[in-house]
């Protein structure tokens, strides 16, 4: 956790015009490791964990996302946000294959290098932000309404979501 806090510190110093939002787990050990690294930085906003609606609003405003959360690995790509996963492995390997997330581990230098690559290189950012999300395209509700309309005879179904075959990308 200290490495992660240090990486956020390095990024905040390298990019002083960027704001870094850090919803921080309430676990005292996590806070003891991370807070000393970031608490005095003016462009780092530290919050307690956020309610879902506030968290998704924050995600929608983010440029990139650094996380170790499995759920965030699914949700952020739906918003077109590149995700750097600060873990050595993931239960969501399909997102890695699709290119919407990248495993970067917990090494401070690697986290900074990978985040900097996304912040400094438009092509690297676009490749992740525009990769096809294997969890859907955000149109499930419209498909559900169309399916109900088709079942009741008042409309037609629309095309189902089909992620691209990642082997052909």
UniProtKB/TrEMBL annotation:
SUPFAM superfamilies: UDP-Glycosyltransferase/glycogen phosphorylase. GO terms for molecular function: UDP-N-acetylglucosamine 2-epimerase activity. Keywords: Isomerase. Coiled coil: none annotated. Its EC number is 5.1.3.14. Residues 2-148 form the UDP-N-acetylglucosamine 2-epimerase domain. It is an enzyme of class 5 (isomerase). It comes from the Bacteria. Gene3D superfamilies: Glycogen Phosphorylase B. Pfam families: Epimerase_2 (PF02350). Belongs to the UDP-N-acetylglucosamine 2-epimerase family. This is UDP-N-acetylglucosamine 2-epimerase (non-hydrolyzing). It comes from Corynebacterium jeddahense.
